[in-house]
Every structure is written in structure tokens, then in C-alpha cells.
Amino acid sequence: MTIYITSVRSFAETIRNARERAATLARSLSDAIARARTFTDPDLSDQGVAAKRAELEATFRAAAQTDLQKLTAEVSHARQYLAQAARENTQLPNDAAGLIRAEQKWRQVEKILDAGGDLLSQIRTADADTALAIAEFGPSWVQAQSVRPQGLTGAVAAGLTPDGVQGGDPAASVRRAVSARLADVTTDPTLAELLRVDSAADGHVATVEPWLTAASNLVEYGTADLLGAALASQIAQPSTEPAPAEAAA
After folding, report:
1. Residues ≥6 apart with Cβ < 8 Å to 199
2. H/E/C letters for each residue in 141-196?
3. Model-level pTM?
4. Using one digit for the tens of pLDDT, what is the confidence trace for 154-193?
5. CA nearest neighbour of 23 among 219, 235, 202, 214
6. What's the chain look like in SS3?
7. Residues 150/112/142/87 CA torsion (nearest 10 deg)
8. pLDDT digits (tens, 9 = 90+) for 203-240
9. What's the CA gap between 216 and 223, in Å, rounded?
């Protein structure tokens, strides 16, 4: 599939900047609400001051709701675009020979996993064909571990979340790791840039979500834990920041 690199870079920038935008929105709304609640006017009665305070707060919260909806939609659309573009450009060959080769590659990996091997280690050393096979069959294998004893499931989950993204499902970690590996082994620099952006996107989105939640709470309830949002966002920050997409070109 055609990779529209200008769109990829634009959506990557949207995701990278979203944390700062969400934090600014939440903090600005918190300040605006505080101003509204302390508004005073010597020419107004107590009832008039109270009514004006309520009017100002409602106005600020309504305006912020519009901004919040816009930002949330932009982040969601950007993430969906990058994920879809990455999937479309990392599909298995649709010819019989290609499918057979992919199944053979996966069976080799699966034998290692059944013997106690680590999937992430297999991804980190995979060639392009093996990485594509893991991308196709790996998530289902990981999800199947949920029917295994809890200890094994926990080990699988722990082994697949070293990328700094807290929480989420291990299958998503497989896809991120595969994207990162394919970016390293592909000979197509445009595809490599797309895959690096895609593999980093979830980490960026994870740092945005606490601030979006804080802004949403301010809009709906008029209060939010901004310190908690800042801490949660920092905790979600990937331990190793990927290089900007343009550097991969």
C-alpha cells in the first residue's frame, strides 16, 4: 500500500504534541474556574455575584469541552491512521508460497516458545519474514496464554511490556515490538519511518490520557487532581524516547 509520508509525519506530530496540549488545556481550565469562583464586583449584590460566578464557570467549562472534544478526536484519528497504515504495509504475502513460508517461520518460533523461549527475544533477532510471521500469529499465541496457569500468563505479560507503556494487553506489545524490529530490518526507509512512528505512538498516547481525563473531570465536575495527572503522565512516559520520525528518514 502507498505510504503518504507527509500524513504520517503530520499525525505523528499530533500525537507527540498532544500531551502538552492536554496539560495546557487542563491547567488553563482549572485556573479559569478558580477565577470564576473568586469573581467579585462591588456594584452587584451577593446574589448577582453568585449568578455571575456560575455564568462565568459554565462558559469556561463549555468552551473547554469543545477544545477537549477536538483534541481527543485528533489524537484518536491520528492513532488509528498510523496503526492502519502500519498494518496495511506489513501484511503477509497473499500468494500460497508466501503464506506457507510464513507458517513455517512461525512454527520455528513456536517450537522455541514451547520449549520455554521468550517471544520478545525472538522478535528482537527476527529477520523480515520471521517478524511478519510473528506479527500475524504472535498476538493470537499471546492471547491464548490466558487459558494457561496464571503464573505463565503473568510471565508472558511481564516479558512483553518492557517498552515503558504501562498496562494494556500483551498482544499490543507484540505488535509494537514487531513494528520496531521491522523498522530495523526493512530496506524501505519510508516504511521504516512509518513503523518507528507506529511503535512509539502508544507510549505517547499513554502520557496524554491522564491529562485528557483531568480535563474531562474539570469540564464535567469542575474539579480534578492535576498533580495526580502529572504523576500518572510521567509514569507512563516511555523509559527510552524514540528518535523523531524525521531522523529515521
Report:
1. 163, 176, 177, 179, 180, 183, 242
2. HHHHHHHCCHHHHHHHHHHCCCCCCCCCCHHHHHHHHHHHHHHHHCCCHHHHHHHH
3. 0.81
4. 444 444 544 444 445 667 788 888 999 999 999 999 999 9
5. 214
6. CCCCHHHHHHHHHHHHHHHHHHHHHHHHHHHHHHHHHCCCCCCCCHHHHHHHHHHHHHHHHHHHHHHHHHHHHHHHHHHHHHHHHHHHCCCCCCCHHHHHHHHHHHHHHHHHHHCCCCHHHHHHCCCHHHHHHHHHHHHHHHHHHHHCCHHHHHHHHHHCCCCCCCCCCHHHHHHHHHHHHHHHHCCCHHHHHHHHHHHHHHHHHHHHHHHHHHHHHHHHHCCCCHHHHHHHHHHHCCCCCCCCHHHHC
7. 170
8. 999 999 999 999 999 999 999 999 999 999 999 987 54
9. 9
Q: Which residue has the cell 491512521?
A: 81
Cell digits of residue 25? 488545556
How many residues belong to the chain?
249
Other C-beta atoms lying within 10 Å of the C-beta of residue 4 = 14
Split at pLDDT 50, 70, 90, the class of 201 is: very high
Residue bearing cell 514487531: 178
Q: Which cell numbers hold the place of 32?
A: 479559569
User: Which cell goes with 87?
Assistant: 498494518
